[in-house]
Amino acid sequence: MIQYLFFALSALTIISALYVVFSRNPMHSVLSLIVCFFTVAGHYILLNAQFLAIVHIIVYAGAIMVLFLFTVMLLNLNRETEPHKTNWVKIAAVIAAGMLFLTLIASLKMAGLGTYSLPHKSNIGFIQDIGVKLFTDFMLPFEISTILFMSAMIGAVLLAKKEK
Amino acid sequence: MSNDFFILMRSELGIMLIIFFLLFLKVWDGITENKKILQIANVLLLVNFMLGFILNANGELFNGMFHTTNLINFEKIILNFGTLIISLQAYDWLKNHKHVIEFYILLLTTLLGMFFMLSSGNFLMFYLGLELASIPLAALVNFDLEKIKSSEAAVKMILSSAFASCIMLFGISMLYGTTGTLTFVELPHLITGGSLQVLSLIFVFTGFAFKLSAVPFHLWTADVYEGSPVAVTSYLSVISKAAMVFVFISILNPLFENMQLMWYNMLFLTIVLTITIGNLFAIRQQNIKRFLAFSSISQVGFILLGISSNSTMGVTASIYFLIVYIFSNLGAFSVIAIVSNETGKENINDYKGFYKTNKFLGWVMALSLFSLAGVPPTAGFFGKMFLVTAGASKGNYILIIIAALNMVVSLYYYLRIVKAMFVDENKEPITKVTGSTSVQIAIIICMAGVILTGFASVLYDYINSLM
Question: Within 10 A of A63 (CB to CB), how many other CB atoms are there?
Fold first, then answer.
């Protein structure tokens, strides 16, 4: 059962991700990106990580995608306004990306990853367990990220504020 | 545990205290005079620098997330020292700036990030430290708020550093995927050189090369250095680079010990490209900040040469050279800061006839450039000599010959500026500039460093004893 669900979700993820890239209309790209995020959240649930799935939907499908939509609407992305790249740059980019893709596939194939089995503890992705982990083992990174947010906020306000 | 906490983390806690003190100073809004704020900040940084020398201890905290040793402590002292000098040097520029406190808050958060990066015992901590050290930097690069070039530099900086972080994170995730752990204690045994781990080494290496601005990942450097304010340029080229080198040393060989041959070959190629291309582009530059950007690229190549030897001697030589590099580069940047602040001139041609009007600053600049080039009486010569000797211990003479040839090339372009200052005629030379007392203090410290660190073998022996 889970296997069928996995394949269905994966197919949906890949199709929507491809549509993001190949769609001519930026609006369609953004909308299919939302579908992609939802299906990835479905994968998290299959992996027993409920908290991650919820956060993924709230943060990505909610906050970030709204920002994306606003940007796309405000920027008025036309064919004319887009910067044109020369053919050489395009060819070089395709070759470089293709080589990286080939290397990735080859190394994944050679690595011979073992089969995946679900974790023994069934409650591993619950909010309570994550909270406990966060305040015991990962205390220091958690606290440092607050300083990171503070400094990023100060920097953003500094740059965005209009000078009088 | 509680005592340990305060002693082991005292550098980080000190910086954090200063950050929050400045934050409250901002909110309180009681001191409005910039000069007073600058003096307070400088005194606080000096105290913080002194604090590094007392209560030295080794150990780890938070289940190995954070660890510190004598060597790491010494590296933190070096970074503190460099930040203090840059703060002194920025005095003239900041005293008329509207956002002095924000400058220090952002500057010190990046420093804090570097400290956590140095002390990290886990890739998660390392990554957080890296982000903390690079995100506020973009805001700092944009600190000349009204200049469009500064904004352009900030965008280039944030995009390229985000890209580099992404690549590095991809590499780290592959390591996690193949080993199931992120701690530096467990990883070395589990990294055996499987195909995915090779890929992850390449990605992590690429991320580091981006941050160190080693060729072929150097393209952001020149534009960012040119656009940002002089104080931030010197911070980028000295402090953040030194921190990355320190972390590179503590990650590359200890973690990827089983893949030595592989990373040596990667390093070999990077060194050859970095030194050569850095030098060739430096010859062509007209803007003095761009020029120093390319010269710093080629200097990084020499530091990597020391690291490539993979021995105690190489590491010692690299750290020693970084200290010398801090002195000489900051000396040059102090002069540029004074000139740029008082006249707004940043082209090499403007420096023609500089010696006739500014005797002292002319000599300071010349000495710093001699030291960067590695001319014998200055410390830079000893630094480069140790690096090349360490690199030669591996027996790869092609590398050494290329490095030596490049030293000759670098001599040409450093002396070109000295010639412009001392020999060339100029109808409108830069008028007499002095700079405030605090910049002069910074200059004198740098010059003392350039001359004395070369002769005092104490420093080299001290670093060696910390290994």
Answer: 10
